[in-house]
């Protein structure tokens, strides 16, 4: 049976109306936010207050599901292959959305094809930190010590191929030092070992380490961003410390599987942008060393594309490949 022009127009209009109704009634059941890292890391610390605020606003349960491993790709793959109905979200970072494209030859999902970006929530630098017993107080001291003992000093990161690893290898390249990379499965476990002296240095997310830098349990030598952080303003940048041009920031955003109704994406984006403006959320982010953003969806998509290109260039220069 052939469809008439009028029938086609009616079908398109009906589909649009159904989508609009779905968007207006959303959410009608529990929402799951997949955190692709262990509890206690920077991503987890941001995801939990976001989930709490959404749950309060919508009077629906919003749960955190920590699915760590493979530099965020296990959690990312779960969301990429979930039904595009708005009930499974990813709190994604530069690792599983940009860096992995630069350092892995194969990925189980395509960061640009398989996700619909909702909004960029926050950004933050990383920190080059050391155990207080290490006899260094500046980046210059650290480089000098590494040159005196090549191949013996280790630095930990939140995972092979992550922003911490990229920053560490970029630092090694600029400083011409030989230090050993020790990857962890997230910032939480890394911090425990850094404070316990099991590793003596690390490139770690600011939200995870900032309170311990302030308390003196960990010594911050430098931040990896182009400017100092208001959370620990006394800590200089790596650029200020002589490693010119080194600028690696971590960021966090919410994404849904591609194919999710546009009305649902729009509703989520509006709610999350408002959330980043709430005084208590802004205070919590500041406490964690994060800068709130709350972007348009297309701006977040553009950032992901730009970061992919940036890290592909850096990984090639530093010869970083995970497989």
List the helices and strands and how they pair.
Elements: H1 5-25, E1 31-35, H2 42-58, E2 62-66, H3 73-80, E3 88-93, H4 94-103, E4 115-130, H5 139-148, E5 154-157, H6 163-175, E6 180-183, H7 187-195, E7 201-205, H8 206-215, E8 219-223, E9 249-257, H9 262-277, H10 279-288, E10 291-292, H11 297-318
Parallel strand pairs: 1-2, 1-3, 5-6
Antiparallel strand pairs: 3-9, 4-7, 4-8, 4-9, 4-10
**Continuous helix count:** 11
Give start-end ranges of low-pLDDT stretches. none
CATH topology title of the largest domain: D-Maltodextrin-Binding Protein, domain 2
CATH superfamily of the largest domain: Bordetella uptake gene, domain 1
Helix percent reads 40-55%
Gap from first CA to last CA: 53 Å
Number of domains: 2
Arithmetic mean pLDDT: 90
Biggest β-sheet strands, sense, barrel: 8 strands, mixed
Derived from helix and strand composition plus strand pairing, the structural class reads alpha/beta
- As a whole number of angstroms, the C-alpha radius of gyration is 21 Å
Number of strands: 10
- Give the overall shape: globular
CATH level 1 class label of the largest domain: Alpha Beta
- Give the ordered list of helices and strands: HEHEHEHEHEHEHEHEEHHEH
The fraction of residues assigned to DSSP E strands is 15-25%
Write the CATH architecture name of the largest domain. 3-Layer(aba) Sandwich
